[in-house]
Please model this.
Amino acid sequence: MIESTGWLSAAAFQLEPTCRSTEHPPTTEPELLDVNAETPWPNHSLVWSPDGRRIAYVKGNYSWRKSLNQMSVAIWVVDADGGTSVQVTDEESMNLSPQWLPDSRHLLFVSNRDGTRGIYVVEVGMDGPRGPPRSVLPSSDPHSISVSADGKKLAYARFPAAQNIWSIPIPQIGVASIKDVVPVTEGNQVIESHSLSPGRDSIVYESARRGNFDLYKKALAGGEPTRIVDLPGHAFGPQWSPDGSEIAFYSGGGIYTVPAAGGVPSSIEGFPGRSSDPAWSPDGLSIAFLS
Amino acid sequence: MTDFLCTRPLLWDPEGTGPICRLSDSTGVVDTDTLVHVSRDGEVLAKFAGVPLGADASLSPDGSRLYIAGVLNGTKGVWWLPVGGGDLTKVIAFDDPSLTVPLSTFSVGDEHLYLTIAKYESDIWVMDLEW
Model:
């Protein structure tokens, strides 16, 4: 099975389709190479190194392949003969679409490690990355990439992200059409989650409009948004507290709160594992979360 | 305590009895049609079955209605149901194919509902690679 799959990679890399797979159908039992028990996401985007010795893959955020989900995710490499997988990128940013160069030592990939999405390269040794990734094409909005067989050309699918907040009147009777929406926010940014202030006059949301996902708030009456959280990592899932004084959010697997007016976030200690999606209780004394 | 997995959405019931979340199967990845209301100790207090498949739910400001965005019987939209139980009522129809509503999150105000809409475009580029 491994030989057969290894050959398929080489064939795809050399762009020389043949019928060899039917001449030598797999005759061995599949071998288990890696188990991902840490996330509810499947491993995906497997790609063989040209020398057939290693397989790079992505451990999580499968939905990026079909949406604008910007969840942080890392690229891993496992020996084709088995063994322990090694992580070759950070998991604090989104790292996807690995592609080997012909030397089987360098990996190209898509990442938003510096804020906006670009293409990077990292050298991969037997025990992990050798040095930090280098930028190949910054801020190019790539979604996925492919390297030519000779390693001299790079193709990439550009996918500019624009996902904004819109509002629509709630009908008293009947069904309203989504065609009646009007914009609340605008621009080349991705907003996934948001929360209304208790007074329903402002909205807080996360946006990568200046690189990392930071938290912004904006008055519904109009005006420019105000950044209220600026962390080295990403901030997601803002939730306004019932009394309007604080905003809870998650970052790097931890839960934080920040004054609604902006300021220095406070980490809430004692949350187990990688936590997300904080939700205030109505009395503002408890926070539920997913972990 | 009942053993089950919660997935998004996660919110609190208006009385503060405990959170409401979407019931998941043991793998944590299946988007079921059931929301569960659990106590702070993890006991299931109520189930809302047959709700739209989707990513989010939000309470009305007065706490009387639970709005759910998702897919029901093959159509996408927003529905609400009484928090105390009752029938689903469709309130927003996602009837414009040119507008992609990713169902990530939405918020409910007094008179307006706030949601995210994605605009897609994609093209392919080729460049020389030096290494």
